[in-house]
Design brief:
The chain is an alpha+beta fold. It folds into 2 domains: 156 residues, Ribosomal Protein S5, domain 2 (2-Layer Sandwich); 105 residues, 2-Layer Sandwich (Alpha-Beta Plaits), CATH 3.30.70.890. Helices cover 30% and strands 27% of the residues. The chain has 9 helices and 10 strands. Strands 1, 2, 3, 4, 5, 6, 7, 8, 9 and 10 form a 10-stranded mixed sheet that branches. β8 and β9 form a beta hairpin. The two termini are 22 Å apart. The protein binds 4-diphosphocytidyl-2-C-methyl-D-erythritol 2-phosphate (SUD) and adenosine-5'-diphosphate. Adenosine-5'-diphosphate binds next to α1 and α2. The site of 4-diphosphocytidyl-2-C-methyl-D-erythritol 2-phosphate has 19 residues, from β2 and α5.
């Protein structure tokens, strides 16, 4: 890495609730979900190349270079703007993959915002969010960087400011396929749209949870164990489950009690993403 390197976080998210309202003609599901960020993140470093090449130097297991959402985001940005600059990128992967905490989507959003800055493209947040949506349903919320109530497939975002507790996040060692959960015939698809905003307490279920629990005993077990200390819930389509605590000490204590059988981490909930806090400090 050279000295003119821009290093930015790509934080995780939680779905504090997730309701499925129906299925669209294209097979995608209409959702209502509440996104909040965690102060727990991957780290991406960017260094300018003058030759126009996009190179990611950190390989992820089972994700070829050209399929990595970081590379896809960089290429989309070049195609949209005609920018002739290139970039070297390094990724420090901290977030568990396929866990419903959005690491891939967040890496993509950090790439879009990081390169917009490094390449001095001057794209607006709206333009970056639209480009992000073409990479994945969860990318726009990471581009905008504010906790949000989301509708549609996650692209219609209304900023919200829920409490910011400390969370224990358990990471069951199973890979849950999002497509598989959404194609399960037993999935609840007829939740009624919420009329009240902010989301009333007691309405915070995740409609994917019963199907995921049935298919993955490891997830059911993690929920059962965490439920002994606080209300535990699935994020996204899993596999991660989370529960809130009033302070770090209590969250740390519970994670330590579960450590013999469970892998996980403690992180603070945050309504402004770490990425946006860092970018603000640069501008
Ligand atoms: C449901 C969420 C909630 O945050 O789950 P997680 O992935 O975070 O667990 C996300 O919106 C997921 O977004 P993302 O992970 O980008 O999903 P995609 O790659 O776009 O979709 C994977 C597959 O899931 C199904 N899918 C996804 C989103 C959606 N609203 N309806 C669907 O039916 C589709 O079959 C799609 O082919
Ligand atoms: N930079 C990336 N980080 C993580 N996963 C990526 C990345 N690029 C592509 N992927 C693919 O996206 C899939 C889902 O990743 P991730 O966002 O971590 O899970 P989820 O959507 O469940 O939160 C991974 O299993 C991997 O195949």
């Amino acid at each position: 890495m050279n000295t003119a390197t821009l290093t930015l976080p790509a934080p995780a998210k939680l779905n504090l609730m997730l309701h499925i309202l129906g299925r669209r003609a294209d097979g995608y599901h209409e959702l209502e979900t509440l996104f909040q960020f965690l102060d727990h993140a991957d780290e991406l470093s960017f260094a300018l190349r003058e030759d126009g090449e996009v190179r990611l130097h950190s390989e992820i297991d089972n994700v070829p270079h050209e399929s990595n959402l970081i590379v896809k985001a960089a290429r989309k940005l070049k195609a949209l703007t005609g920018c002739d600059k290139g970039v070297d990128i390094w990724l420090k992967k901290i977030l568990p993959m396929g866990g419903g905490i959005g690491g891939g989507s967040s890496d993509a959003a950090t790439t879009l915002l990081g390169l917009n800055y490094l390449w001095q493209l001057g794209l607006s947040e709206d333009q970056l969010a639209e480009l992000g949506l073409s990479l994945g349903a969860d990318v726009p919320v990471f581009v905008r960087g504010h906790a949000a109530f989301a509708e549609g497939v996650g692209e219609k975002l209304t900023p919200v400011d829920p409490e910011e507790p400390w969370y224990v996040v358990l990471v069951p060692q199973v890979f849950v396929s999002t497509a598989e959960i959404f194609s399960d015939p037993q999935l609840t698809r007829d939740s009624l749209p919420l009329k009240m905003r902010p989301v009333p307490k007691g309405n915070s279920r995740n409609d994917c949870q019963p199907v995921v629990e049935q298919r993955y005993p490891e997830v059911r077990n993690s929920l059962y164990l965490l439920n002994k200390y606080t209300e535990a819930r699935l994020t996204g389509t899993g596999s991660c489950v989370f529960g809130a605590f009033p302070n770090k000490a209590e969250a740390d204590k519970v994670l330590a009690l579960l450590a013999e059988t469970q892998t996980g981490f403690v992180a603070k909930g945050s309504n402004i993403s770490m990425l946006h806090r860092k970018l603000q400090s640069l501008l």
